Prior knowledge:
By secondary structure, the protein is of the alpha/beta class. It contains 19 helices and 15 strands. It starts with a helix and ends in a 9-residue tail after the last helix. Mean pLDDT is 91; it is low at 1-28.
Amino acid sequence: MERETLSKFGVLLLILSSLGCAVYFSRPLPPSGKTVIRFLTYETGQGQMDMVNAIKRDFEKANPDIEVQVEFNSMARDKIYVETASGTEPDAFYAVTDDIPRLAIKGAIEPLNELIARDKASNLNIYFPEVVNALRYAPPYLKIPRAKQELYAYPIHFSTDILFYNKDLFEKAGVPFPTDKWTWAQMIEAARKLTVKDDRGRITQFGMFLPDTATTIEGNGGHVFNSDYTRCLIASPQALEAVETLRALRFKDHIAPTPAQVQETSSMQMFKLGQIAMLPGRTYMTVDFNKITDFKYDATLMPGMKFNVERLAVGGVCISRHSDAQHKAAAYRWAKFYCSPEGGQAILGCEKNCVTAVKALALSPKYFLKPPPANSRVLVDSLYDSRITIPPIVGASEYINGIATPSTDDMLRTEHMDIAAALRNYQAATNKLLAKEPKGPTR
């Protein structure tokens, strides 16, 4: 009987959630009289967990009426989607740009514009505007400019593409170090000189690893999407040229490894072992690379075929819309502290996992810009050439896992695929997915 009752209760929650009804839970205060909030994050690296726990200690010291129960879970993204369906999600949780449309359209996360407007001590101007705007969302049918859309997460940090390089290998080959003014042609020429073969003609050192396909297309003047992400435009001459160029670096020029040559390792591991001279990578890789002792490395801007374009990813703290007013207020205080320069940001920027969203800290020579790497400034400057390449749509996960990743992998995996046909199929599948996006109010 008890199981039957619980089952019926669970079904009721799912029905209410599907109807767009907010499900609130009245939670009694603990004996201490504190408001207890739950915070869920999938940043589960040891360094990341240590920093979040340090933020928790500082927050609870400054806010003795609130207790934060931190839950680290590498599968937190899936967990959030399951829990928001029943209104049982944590009071606050870590999310990235492409999580927001799906959560916002379901009414699972609290809009922050009004809360911040009422909070006279809150100031979004301390953050990079590009980072703040990446955490905004409105359904495309509303045609609201990005900067005026609702903010759904307090900004923590961002990451982009940059070009890592092995300084020792450059010196050994007599090739000048790359600069932030480097062109695509200069990068390819250097990669040729940095590719090394043994006596039997086997490549023992590659000049570079392939950069991201979407940003290579954008850097060649093509577009994966139109400006409001309502249409996919990838079947273009610029995209065809970009993909064929990337494929040639593998199968014609032999300066970038094929999937078979990478085998069971990874691009990061190959770079750390000195098997790749240049690695188009992500900001978070600096944490591992700063531990390298076998050689010196540095970083620079990733050059594009015609102009520079970097991928932008942004992380922030969301607040559950299903929490009651008391827990929602406490979660807001936690999110604000977590993202403030005096609170969480003073801790998070010590390890270069991502770039702090606070401009003053990110640009401080005594803080984030402090080496290594020597050119830490590139981690920040890459923001200005960056854009969101994952569309801010409800079906973002379906696009990434069902279309973008398998399509680009297939196009670059073999030497003789019909790229033009593959791009047309990519575009058709994506536009079919975009057609499913909400065309009007869902609640």
